[in-house]
Protein 1
Amino acid sequence: MNLLKSWNAFSAEWKEVHHEYSERAVHDCRVATRRLIAKLEIVAIVTRSGKHRDIIRKLRKTLKRLGPLRDIHVHMRRAHRDHSDPAIRFSRFLQEQEKDEIRRVRKKMPEKSRKAIRRGVWSSNKRLQAVLDGTSRPVLRATAGEHIQKRLDAVARAYASFKRSPSPEEFHRMRVKFKRFRYAAEAAKPVSEIFTDRQFDRMRKLQKVMGEINDLQIYMAALAEWSGKPVPAALQKELDALLKAFNNNPRPFEEFNFRKRTKARTAKS
């Protein structure tokens, strides 16, 4: 396990964002940020050190700073698909918002911030390599497994909360918990050997579906706030169909419960 590959990916995406501020660049930078955070969280557990918290906090600030621009891009993409007069006017409004948000991001994410993150990541990687030299693979696997299980348990709780109160806010919380679980599973893959490639593919597809639902929900909310009118019936119909497809699976996260698989194998032996 090594942090430098994740750092290089993050650094490249950071520079790309400052080069063009496009939807793709912002999305890719946020993904690289989450993956680096997930790796650092594993490192914090393996090294049993709280010295990584500051760098994780800085990375979470990066996610937060890019969040509004990402939402604007989502809204713009959706508005461009609709050729109605309200959507065209909303698109023009969003273009002005984008310009303002780009100026804010440029100011809030200076080059010195990237360099500060770099110093923290390299320091964390040194601690990690020192610990790895004296830690057996079974211990690493067990430690990573406990962390992943905690993330999965958080998804299960969020899903139960969403089922009790199926609001956009609860769906968003569940989606965030699932993303953290998925990136934790990916970060620990070199040592955990818990999930198959098929399961990782299922995680990606499930996250994509949840992302489509969340994007439509936030677009509808933004459109309603801007226009002061109810959202078009066609959008509500589309959202209802997406939610129905998601809810048709009564246990969408069950196949990732490796604790049950472990117990089953133990019982057979």
Protein 2
Amino acid sequence: MDYQILQGDNRETLKTLEDCSVDAIVTDPPYGIDFLGKSWDANTGALETYQECLRVLKPGGYILAFSAARTYHHLAITLERAGFEIRDQLMWLYSSGFPKAQDIGKAIDKRAGKKDPNYGTTKQNITSTEGKGHAGQICNVCQRGVGEWSLKCTNNPCGLKYNYQTDQGRDWAGWKTSLKPAHEPICMARKPFKGSTIDNVLEHGVGALNIDASRIEYESLKDMEGAGLNWNKTGYETGGPRFIGSGDENKSIPKPEEKGTFPGTRINTQGRFPSNVIGEVEGYQKFFYCPKVSRKERHIGFENAPTIQSMLEEPKRKHGYTQDGTLGRMKDAMHNSPNVGNNHPTVKPVALMRYLIQLVTPPNSTVLDPFNGSGSTGMAAVELGHEFIGCELDPAYVAIAEKRIRAWNTPEPSGTTFEVLFEQNG
């Protein structure tokens, strides 16, 4: 495994890298939305950082940088100011986003000093359990989840459902301040170069997109037949539907056993041409499918370590932190504990980072992530056989990333007799 994580301010650590030494940059910078009140999320990355990224990137090299819907323009403008050329905007779609909106009706009641006195009272006796209701909690009164099951609760009044107290509150019931998040834009930018793309590819090895490595597999022959074809609406002759606009309207759709490109068409049997939409979408066979990161993947390398949730529920001082003070101070103390699993708040799926790296990176290249976080980009880059360089300010996240990269790229023991004998004799 060939990787390194440079700990410190990326505006400084990037200066240790040589000019034009990086083939691609795939990164998840701050979104500038003050996520969870974190100071590092006050902007979408410093101009100086992206200027250094431009310097170390080879001519024609791509940067793929995540952002939020409402701050994407800040990131794009900063990249342009740094000298990058904006090439496209990718969309990572997902269905598991959680709405974070203020309820106007509740806010009006609260301003009037007439908040529903019963709301939340059934939460006094809550037990924690895995996979039931919101945040893994159920109500001991009705034994239903605190969230998804609250509408089915028959208790009246039910402390899980809010009853508006004022006329204005009832008038504005159902009005909120934002939509449910379901996508994150990814800015695709490229370092400018002189001459043609062909000349640049031949000289520097970058500047083009690896389309065939990123194609979307067909789910069936029917799916393949319908991909990009224009059907002759006037009729279906003997033998099935015919192609139009192919130069030969008498050619039928090939049989499943026939290989290669369909005659008279531009259909590639390797898969669909990748689009600038990826993610968790109905009809996802047309796009690269990738949901949010799983719990197992998030905590890889920390299988035997407690999570923050378990530590909050454990009323003992045995995990390297104290429970004195507010919840926020407890979490900060846990963050610095060497026993905690991956507690980074914005972990990206490795499959997503792997797909993006494949799209813009030639084989056996160097991949950079100037906002390393918990190391998902590094996990994917090393898996694909690239050299990886990450930059991370927080030493705790450096340790987490190194552990995850090693665990992700270490083959799991098969438990076979041969392997046991090999280890004993090695």
Protein 3
Amino acid sequence: MEATRAFAATDAAPAARGSGELVRTGEALADLAQALAPVDVEVFAPLEDSLSDWRTPRIAADLGPRFPALLAAAERSLGRGPERNAFNRALVAHLASRLPLRLDARRLPTDVVERVPPALERLRAFLSEPRNGYGLGDEYFLRDVRFAAGWTVPCGSEVIDLRARVSLPASFQIALRARAPRLALRRLLVSEPDPWFAPHTESRHLDEFNETGWETTYRNVASLLRRHTDVVGVVGYSWFYDPALELISPRLAYLRRGPLAGGAVFIRGHTTEFDVRNATAKSRTRRQLYRAAEYTPVGYKMVWLRDDILRWAEGAARVPR
């Protein structure tokens, strides 16, 4: 227990010491990890260490080269079903309890730091109940591990991956469409991919999924960009960037219109089962139009380069609120 709750002591990170709420939430998660774990929580140390490389740009499904193998080995030593479920929930609770130790290294703006304790509390409530399939391959588990490890941070309507990667072909496509030849040149000269921020919708928390919440997200992204000078911009992919929504779901038009007005570019992608499932899940209109073959969801890549989003943020800050 004491090892798990060490951040509350004098060696805690300054961000943790400065926020009683953050410390209290971390301690509650540490208690939950201790209560859930079918093994000693010291077993989690190698798994936590394998997630320390937060600066490497990765796709969202990538938890690094070591973590999946370590987790699979740990699961093999457990019984099936409830015991593995408890292990994985305890692991995430343990990782999350120690997130305050990692926050200072992430150089987060104040508004983002203040969003961490409520996000941790929501995670604690979620982990307090069993969930079938909570492990590798489960979307919630993947997102919870990334957040608990400090790879992803809450920014408003969206959570933001602090280091996302774009493939080589996509990098050239972006360079062409965004008229940014320096991106293509750097991608050719540097072996490592450029780091990007990437937004993701957290389906368990949609309270801020509105125009104001998205504006808050992008303001926070701009603040993050000022602190993370190596990040080249924001890249996202979703069916809700589809221009067809201007007519089909005009209340969602702001999702594309806002970034577009700020200099973002949009690149047409494809229609996948994921796009169809998400586009039709909560809208009877889109569901009916899709079934009638009058609407096909299409995913679009949104690319907003750092100079453009910083310029947008400066202009937005001058607008009276």
Protein 4
Amino acid sequence: MNDQSSNVGSNTPSRRDFLKQSAVVAGSVAGLASSARAFAGGSDVIRVGLIGCGGRGTGAAAQALRADKGVQLVAMGDAFADRLSSSHSTLKAQKDLADRVQVDNDHRFVGIDAYKSVIEASDVVLLTTPPHFRPAQLKAAIEAGKHVFCEKPVAVDGPGVRSVIETAKLAAEKNLTIVSGLCWRYHHGKRAAFERIHGGEIGDITSMRCSYLTGGLWTHPRQPSWSDFEFQLRNWLYYTYLSGDHITEQHIHSLDKMGWAMKDQTPIRASGTGGRQTRLDPIYGHIYDHFAVEYEYENGVRAFSRCRQQDGCQNDVTDHIYGTKGFMDVMGHKQYDYAGNLVWRFKGNGGNMYQIEHDEMFAALRAGKTINNGDYMAKSTLMAVMGRMAAYTGKTITWQQALNSKEDLTPASYDFGPMDMPKVPMPGITPFA
């Protein structure tokens, strides 16, 4: 019915053999892979590990547990012990999940490298750390033979996106699942709307417009014991090297719908503007608070995007796809002709997209099938990075320039010590790298 179905593989090994490929043999109990252990009712236990124990990670863990009664959360990892403890307590407090949160003290890993131990202990890994860490963690999980739920975005720069593209190819070769946190692609109403778009119901696409205008998000005031790096990591939203800026971290959802409409054909160039107008306090790091970017496709289609995180302003989170016959209000699941007549409206239940993506992932694993969202999650991430580059530099940036960019935002060190505050990008001054 939609692009999602094309990502489901046709290989159908037995369920036990399929899960065994991601099992870890360790210690004196090495002889029996946990994915082959019997669970109540005769189903196999699927061991899940959580990497990144913030709010999104805690939610993803709960959704994984609710997706399949044979799932157990067996390992957790985070840079900070307090975040891990809070997440664990939250999950244990949920009565329908508590008995399957089986994370003993030996499987609670703290530190930047905690992901390595979580991967080793798990069959399925949930990657919900700040986006900067995603390429390395995804690569490690796939190389280790583990299935992955991977939050968006999947990188913050060109080298990171290139790494994810290669890792997604490796996952396909190894018959491993990668489910993306670009959750609108799992919403029933959006799927129905895009099925109509792809079926030609609005005619040939001529232009697109998307908005993600919201207020501000959370901050964590600095504590006396925190180093520069700890302060930045705890407030990762506001540092481009950690989040990719909010055009990448948040507005990617809107841009992903533009890519979805174009059947993941990539734009050829982008130009844009942006700045830092209201969020001037140092707690907001160095990122922008507004962007407006125009994307051009090879067939002449133009996508006009804008995003804003400013308090006290009118919010607008909408997407519209315009065609030769009419247009689709994507968020409203409504199709109109140009006389203003309502042509179609989705009347079903859209469902909880956060839960659906986990339901479909674990159902595929139980059926011995795979889902690989790697291609579109990498393309949508680069689309956002490309727009950021255009706004930061004030230049028109091509897709190939963005993809082949040498801009590597990895810090010199992950030591919890002094770290310089990055400068606010200045169009016309900040160079393209």
